[in-house]
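Q: A reviewer asked whether we had any structural model of the full assembly, not just the individual parts. We don't, so I'm hoping you can provide one. Inputs are below.
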Amino acid sequence: MNKAEEFKKYVKKIQYYYQALSLIRWDIETGAPKKCIESRAQAIGEISTYAFEMSTSEKMENFLNELSLPESKEKLSDNDRALVRVMKRDFEKQKKIPPELVGQLSVASSKAQAAWEKAKINDDFSVFQPFLQEVLLLTKKMADCIGYETNRYDALLDEYEPGFKSNDVKKVISYLKKELVPFVEKITEKEVDDDYSFLKMKVDRQVQRKLSEKVLRLMNYDHDAGRLDVSMHPFTTSIGANDVRITTFYRDNDFSDSFFSTVHECGHALYEQGVSSELADTPLSSGASMAMHESQSRLWENIVARSHEFWEFFYPETIKIIPELSSVDMERFYRGINTVKRSLIRTQADEVTYNLHIMMRFEIEEALINDRIKVSELEQIWNSKMEEYLGIVPLKASEGILQDVHWSHGSFGYFPSYMLGNVYSVQIYNQMKKDIPSLKDSISNGDLKVILDWLREKIHVHGKKYEPKELLAMITGQEPDPSHFMEYIKEKYSHIYKI
Amino acid sequence: MNKAEEFKKYVKKIQYYYQALSLIRWDIETGAPKKCIESRAQAIGEISTYAFEMSTSEKMENFLNELSLPESKEKLSDNDRALVRVMKRDFEKQKKIPPELVGQLSVASSKAQAAWEKAKINDDFSVFQPFLQEVLLLTKKMADCIGYETNRYDALLDEYEPGFKSNDVKKVISYLKKELVPFVEKITEKEVDDDYSFLKMKVDRQVQRKLSEKVLRLMNYDHDAGRLDVSMHPFTTSIGANDVRITTFYRDNDFSDSFFSTVHECGHALYEQGVSSELADTPLSSGASMAMHESQSRLWENIVARSHEFWEFFYPETIKIIPELSSVDMERFYRGINTVKRSLIRTQADEVTYNLHIMMRFEIEEALINDRIKVSELEQIWNSKMEEYLGIVPLKASEGILQDVHWSHGSFGYFPSYMLGNVYSVQIYNQMKKDIPSLKDSISNGDLKVILDWLREKIHVHGKKYEPKELLAMITGQEPDPSHFMEYIKEKYSHIYKI
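A: Here is a predicted structure for the entire assembly that you could use as a starting point for your response.
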């Protein structure tokens, strides 16, 4: 076996422990008996420590050093070269962080998460504040260990969106702020006198499940390489090669919420189901970045599954499953699922206002990480930013500053992925429209395979082989460009709202 | 931390990898996407190899040597002394087996199981044959590594029933053959003119599930420390502390089969749910032996749940769930579920003929392991043994040679446990009757807690602390003695069949 083969064997070996960890976590979220959690947490601790040790071992260092030599590099296949690059990047980052700090942050964030849950139930930010303080402190230390040029936030952002800097995010935000805020203004000034109460009618959970199963088949989700379950918060997880699982939830009075969650998660899952089998069981067998992943889920959820052409095909199918909808004509249904509203909760926001929620989160967390604001000021800053961007102020902390779990985990730098994902999604879709002139007709005939085939070839098959900017340039020939998103939003919603 | 504490910490560390492996295996049997099996088998191979390496490491050897010194031993608690004994026994056995062989067998058996499932669906032994061949080859290698005095089979049997030899099994078989074969003869000669077609009526799977859930509650199965799922072949697995899962199956026209499977598996699960928490996450947190385990499942399935007194309470409950049964009087129902028949499928066999199925399996596998017969001859030998012991021959491989999963797992030496379990179960129950004079009344009042409490105290709490012969002697003051079983069978069935 040559060095590259040996290296890959070692990488896969590590990956099998991550498979086990992913399965354990999936199991906990989907139905593990509650009394086992304590013992299972010990198992997670043990196995993840071992996997981390292997990833940062001398053996790994030797592999990476040897395979990074110019004379070794030129002999590597494209895939192997990418694998070395990604592993080296992670290795170097991991080596910079003292294991004690990893341990401290892990303890602090599990305490912070418990405090966050309690604070949210009691609508009391002060319960969470000291714990968040601690997590923030350790996260800043982590960023300092990793290093950065001018902005400490960059060290964190890079984890989720390799190759991106705070300034890139700021540029996107400044464009969207100029364009989006006045457009939302215009829409919400428009008075709409339409009855969308059908969206809140009671639909049996079994029926909701049928609807989810139907759309999964239509999207060509491979059930032999995944499964659909129920969890409190919907998620997608790749356990390993050919095993990409999704979850959804069913609430009695919100069938569309469950439906779009399923479509969203399926969008993530199709990405990972489509990665080349040559990359299987390596870290390349996932998405290029968080935002590229989000571009896939958003593309399916919003651009496809909230489009007029989609419902031309799918509305009659939906009525077969939920006959009570037959009294609602399709145009009203279409407007109902595309209602724009200034709302408090990010996860329930429509595709127009969604980015406003992200902008304020970015601005807050970037300032926090750079010590320009304090944790004690957070609630007040949150509320004034809500006022500024969305024109509404939460009355309860649970609907404001306490709504998201991310900061309790120490996941600072994650939020921009959602916005960049929206931006990429339209940019990618516009290219797809150029390449497939009959795209709209295909969708209105229920043929979504053309979309999947295109995404597979252009994006999915590459997995994590390219960095997001590089991949986007390969597909569209362009840098990330939010004007695509803005044009899409303006065209679609000017039509719906007749403005 | 003293040596004993350090040792236990190390043992638990290893145990967490076995937790992961158990979860992976459970997942494969209950719903993992089929395309992932190959990659998952690799993960099983890797993780089991590592767990095996830790179990056979120099570190383990040092712990065991040190803690086995007379001066260390006397300082250990009873539990710790037992742990050292069990680990030392396993260590010495494992040291004899090369780690590669363990990995190979693990991979081969995952693949063989998938092939077995396919073969069974297609009724085609040839699909399974090469995979079984491979598993058998590796199992024999394993037995040779472990070593034995006169019979290679002893090396395997000892794994499931410590302290037992092939000759012990042969002795029980020879007693039962002498007593049981003529008794079955007598019963099956007796003409019975009774209508048991109600056992084959169509019962909705959801209704069957309700019946299973009902009996699990009655048996005091702890749902917060386990869960009920569906698999092709029902089983029980302890993933870890407070996580003992069971599976059953539902067939449209066989509600009683599903019901008794659930009771059987719950019997296993109650054993492991009842092990002292002091033994949690160590190898002592399981049953004393496979046969002792089987004694628990059989005790609940046959002695309790097929008894007249049980149905005095549970029949009215069953009619509430399956109202179609109300036209069947309880005596007919009782005779129906206690019908003795020469049948093809072991898991569906009645408690009288069941041991005949085991005898032939023991004879076949003992001959296979000792190279007296070949895998290619298996189907034909199976059919002729069926003819000899049970007077019937399967027409389909799925009802003959392919009916059991065991050999695909490489679990040669396991089958005798079922027979010994039957033998122990009656022996234990006879003691329970002595200790609890009002036992029958409790059962007919639906109070099964008295049974569980007695079993918990006498058996479950000890886990694997004692060897089976030792434990049986502690409970009953006797050696394993099949005459208890024979008397029980004769008394019960002479009454039912009026012979």
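A: Points you may want to mention in the reply: The radius of gyration of chain A is 23 Å. The first strand of chain A starts at residue 228 and ends at 230.
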